[in-house]
Design goal:
With about 240 residues, the chain is mostly helical. The protein contains 6 helices and 3 strands. It has helices spanning about 1-85, 85-160, 165-170, 175-185, 205-215, 230-235; strands spanning about 190-195, 195-200, 230. A 3-stranded mixed sheet has the order 2-1-3. A hairpin with a 2-residue loop joins strand 1 (about 190-195) and strand 2. The mean pLDDT is about 90.
Length: about 240
């Protein structure tokens, strides 16, 4: 049993050496994916701004058409007034002219507001497009660097884990399986007993269990955190 315990401790030491590499291997894709989603969000915002600009330009085009139509109606109303044969016809022509002029004034005001709004949206869109291109370029560079770093980490990890599988063969399968589950959940699957306490959770080891661990008679687990326990002399 002492040899199995020593093998488990050695496996844990190797896993601990690889932990930072594993953490970075997990963190890099997460960070890249977050940045990718931000790029997509910016792209969606740009598309919405382009749609708003298109709608505003279409509305202004309609207003331009209405202004042209109003000017035509003014010309016709003036012509009617010039051709009026009596006061009644002249008054009717004047009333029509006044109405068309009021409508034209409203349309021209709206036309100006639309033109100002379109100019602002165009300026905003231009700035946002520039910012987006810069951000996207930065993301592409980061993604490229991340791929290189991931490849380097994989090589480093393979070196660190070299021989682990051979050592792990000395550990009973059920214990190794439990160790892996605990390590995945708690970050480590084994802890050294220090001053009678579990070195991970600091809870005192049961007296009878401490004797068994000292003798190396079996592979024990902490009753609190479930990590496997060992003492350095037995592990050495």
């Amino acid at each position: 049993m002492i040899e199995e315990l020593r093998a488990l401790v050695r496996v844990a030491e190797i896993d601990d050496s690889a932990k930072n590499l594993d953490d970075e291997l997990k963190a890099i894709p997460v960070g890249i994916e977050e940045t990718r989603q931000n790029v997509q969000k910016l792209e969606t915002l740009l598309a919405n701004e382009r749609n708003q600009l298109s709608e505003a330009e279409a509305l202004k085009k309609a207003q331009d058409s209405q202004v042209t139509d109003s000017n035509d109606r003014i010309a016709k109303a003036k012509s009617k007034g010039a051709k009026a044969s009596n006061a009644k016809e002249a008054e009717a022509a004047d009333r029509e002219l006044d109405a068309v002029r009021r409508g034209l004034k409203d349309r021209e005001d709206e036309q100006k507001r639309l033109a100002d709004a379109i100019e602002k949206v165009r300026g905003s869109l231009e700035n946002h497009h520039k910012e987006f291109e810069e951000f996207r370029s930065m993301f592409l560079e980061e993604e490229k660097a991340a791929k290189v770093r991931l490849a380097e980490l994989e090589v480093e990890r393979a070196k660190v884990l070299e021989g682990r599988d051979e050592i792990a063969k000395a550990v009973p399968t059920d214990i190794l399986r439990r160790y892996d589950r605990i390590r995945e959940k708690r970050g480590s699957g084994i802890a050294e007993v220090v001053a009678g306490n579990c070195g991970a959770c600091r809870v005192q080891v049961l007296p009878q269990q401490a004797i068994v661990i000292q003798r190396g008679e079996s592979i024990e687990q902490c009753h609190h955190c479930q990590r496997f326990l060992y003492v350095r002399p037995a592990a050495d």
